[in-house]
Amino acid sequence: MQLLNTLYVTTPESYIHLDNDTLRVEVEKTTRLRVPLHHLGAVVCFGYVSVSLPLMHRLADDGISLVLLDSHGRFKARLEGAVSGNVLLRQAQHGLGRDPAFALAVARNCVAGKVRNCRQVLLRGSREAKVPEEAELLSRGAADLAATLRALPTAADLDTLRGFEGEAARQYFAALTTLLRASARASFRMDGRNRRPPRDRINALLSFVYTLLMNDCRSAVEAAGLDPQIGFLHAVRPGRAALALDLMEEFRAFADRLVLSLINRGQVGANDFVEREGGAVLLEGDARKTVLVAYQERKQENLSHPLLSEPVPFGLLPHVQARLLARTLRGDTAEYLPYLVR
């Protein structure tokens, strides 16, 4: 399997255009980068980046997605080619999306995957903690998440299930900053998860990485021939890629671990953020490039998958899971099984 690479264009006023079978990046009429199109799975542009019309056509023809984000990483638009995939699969997805029992079963497993993987983050932290009080706090957090896992089968509807998920998230984020090195906690303290806009540095970093992960999950869903708008856990709303968000849940723990690593290694520091009027905190400058490089490197790390005989790069795991979900929608498998961290 080949890992589909994503090109991130972050330099303001860049111009990207088609040069035969190559994408060329220019800044002030100077060529900065050439990338053969067959090496690319997606192109993501931050802020004021110009894209030539011939390149747009070629990306659409070659099935390479073009994603436009604002300068702070918020999603703006996405260009895709013709819709691919089996229409019968999408019909099945739409029909099963209206089946309360089926939707609840898929949503429950998405939440179970998320909670279980987040619990593994806390358990690992507890084992590695040097301070007994911190190890105990992380162990209690892991125990709370284990209680949520035991309660999930009792959820009789999506609202109850979402309530369990919300409480688990609250317990998880309450313990998460304990995994930061002590010298970074004052700068990266958080009072739970907040967004739109993020109100502290760690939430700003989490939001940035979650945006990258969501784009990859949406690409995986679309590559499998599924409709990204029709989800099971996340309610259907205009403009929301509900199914991509469903798929993303089981991978959030990977994003969280990357964020913790960036802070603990000093790759991202307190001065890499700016506070805007109204209290919004945003990742700025070269730190975004640091995060993008680290994210791309993490995507190339090989992980085992219980259903495959060979290691899989993390960047391909959303594609594997999207295809497993498609098999469930076709009726080839009894239930959707999320990817679980070992």
UniProtKB/TrEMBL annotation:
Source taxon at top rank: Bacteria
InterPro entries, sorted: Cas1, CRISPR-assoc_Cas1, CRISPR-assoc_Cas1_C, CRISPR-assoc_Cas1_DVULG, CRISPR-assoc_Cas1_N
GO MF annotations, alphabetized: DNA binding; DNA endonuclease activity; hydrolase activity; metal ion binding
Cofactor(s) needed: Mg(2+); Mn(2+)
Binding site for Mn(2+): 165, 234, 249
Broad enzyme group: hydrolase
Enzyme Commission (EC) number: 3.1.-.-
Quaternary structure and partners: Homodimer, forms a heterotetramer with a Cas2 homodimer.
Protein name as catalogued: CRISPR-associated endonuclease Cas1
UniProt organism field: Candidatus Accumulibacter aalborgensis
UniProt gene name: cas1
